[in-house]
Amino acid sequence: MSTTKNKREQKKQLGQFLTPPDVAAKILEKVNIDANSVVLEPSFGNGSFIYAYIDKLVERGVDIDNWSKRHLYGCELDKKMFNEFKDAWKYGDLPDNFFLGDFFRYKMPSFSRQKYFASIQGYFDLVIGNPPFGGTIDAEIQDELDSIFGLRNGQKIKKETYAFFIVKCLDLLKDGGKLVFICSDTLLSINTMSGLRRYLMDTCEIVIDRLPGEFDETKQPMVVLTLTKGGRGLVVFGEKKDVDIVNKTANSSWMINHECAKYFTGDVLGNYMVATSGMTIGKNEYFLRKLQNDNIIEPYKIEIVPRKITLKRELEKARLGKIGETKIAKIKQMEKDGLTENAVVVEKLSTPLKIKYPCADYAPYNKATNQIIYSPVAWVIYWRNDGAAVYAYKKSGPWYLHGVGGKPFFKKEGLTWQLISSKLNVRYLPAGYILDSGAPCAFLRDGVPQEELYFIMGWCLTKSCNTILKTVINHTRNIQSKDFERLPYPVWVSPKNKQTVIKNVKRMIDKAIKGKIYTYQSKEIQDLETYFSCADEDATQGRSSKQCSFNF
């Protein structure tokens, strides 16, 4: 977990978005309220779900004081929220069943994987609530928790608070027990949650409903997740999903439907192109310059100097401030021997330099833009001696992530798009660019003809492709590099239409380089849809060129 994440404001640190009482009450209207059930709320906040559940029992005349001592359990990390809940409790003394502390430490006999699985057993009939989303897992135990919750049924579970909450709560449920959680809608399609989706399909009956209400504290779309442990089946927003069809997608997307399932029976773009993210510099101010009328305004003098290696500095840069004993001994020896590393010194100039671009000390930098087809150079990066200062700053800076994303593809010809966008705003990337993390790119695999670059670019500009991307692959605003690779390759397009697409895309690129600006309303872009009209099932296997309308 990054140092930055561990220092966030408390609310974000906890992943805390309090459930409005009316939302909790509406969700519980669909839950079997049984006085014999043993109930857990693992992150109860100020008690919206618990009090909504109790209200239902009070209507039936249940003695809450006695019932809660034997049937109601809760956990809350935030002391302020815990005290608010306690102050509002009006059913005698608050039972000892309520735990102030980290749910990941709750009922944990040990953080040993072996001891955990030897001791854990289903106890609860019902788990309800709103687990933290995007919270910070305690640095002291996150690696141990990853070893316990991070792999289930051979599936990798993302180290994320709501994912680990779901897995642990399932362990605590009896067979046939239910979990009802408010959950981020990222669960539905993003690839990092594909392992969790597959695990849940293997072990539970799953129902996804829309949230009955809104949160004032977040704009993140939320859903209601209901799991029945030991059951089977998947229903999303009232539509029963065929698990076999879900598994046709590389990301096991719960957003797929029968209409688009046929597109996932053949090749994908990843068979033809490899996609990658770019580089995070660490401090853009030092190295990036926006062109001003083909001029670079350089405010700094940048030098590389030797700096002695010290254990103190290496610990400051290390993940969670931890370094293995073997490496510590090695660093101590390097420090004793007076060994050095390259460090960057940045000095502000009294008068900035005005440099005409192009200049050998600067390379074009691929910052994100919503332009399609092509965008002229707008940003450059200080790249003297093939980026030596940037690489040195990455390696010796105050962080543990020293890798340079996309480095093998620097300066290669390819395609690129915005990371955060509602559409795949794809554009041609000429050779020569250094890659930015905010604009993923894709490059032809070895041996793939160059014409495929233009054909695939044409496909990515169509409404059909974008519908598949935002319906099945990743319905959020993120468009990751691997999302691109998972898109179906249009094998149904006839050879004649394919050549027409290639010719038209090349022509558009040439015109865009000369200054023409294209939008999705441009006739040339809209005409592409004609050549990529979806094919029938035979055509997706390359046996026909018969076309049909694309209808989502």
Question: What order do the helices and strands come in, and which of them pair?
Answer:
Layout: H1 3-6, H2 10-14, H3 21-28, E1 39-41, H4 48-59, H5 64-71, E2 72-76, H6 79-88, E3 98-100, H7 113-119, E4 124-129, H8 142-149, E5 151-152, E6 155-156, H9 161-172, E7 173-184, H10 194-203, E8 204-210, E9 222-229, E10 234-236, E11 239-240, H11 243-246, H12 258-261, E12 273-276, H13 284-287, E13 288-290, E14 295-308, H14 311-317, H15 325-336, E15 340-356, E16 362-366, E17 379-382, H16 384-396, E18 414-416, E19 427-429, E20 434-435, E21 441-444, H17 451-460, H18 463-473, H19 481-486, H20 495-513, H21 523-531, H22 537-540
Parallel strand pairs: 1-2, 1-4, 2-3, 4-7, 8-10, 16-20
Antiparallel strand pairs: 5-6, 7-9, 8-9, 10-11, 12-21, 13-17, 14-15, 16-17, 18-19, 18-21
| Low-pLDDT ranges | 1-8, 11-15, 536-552
Strand content: 15-25%
* Proportion in helices: 25-40%
Q: What is the overall number of helices?
A: 22
Tell me the radius of gyration: 27 Å
> Largest beta sheet, briefly?
9 strands, mixed
Mean pLDDT: 88
Helix/strand structural class: alpha/beta
According to DSSP, the number of beta strands is 21
Head-to-tail CA distance between termini: 40 Å
Strand order of the largest sheet: 3-2-1-4-7-9-8-10-11
Overall morphology: globular
Could you list some keywords that capture this structure?
552 residues, four-stranded antiparallel β-sheet, disordered C terminus, 22 helices, alpha/beta, nine-stranded mixed β-sheet, globular, 21 strands
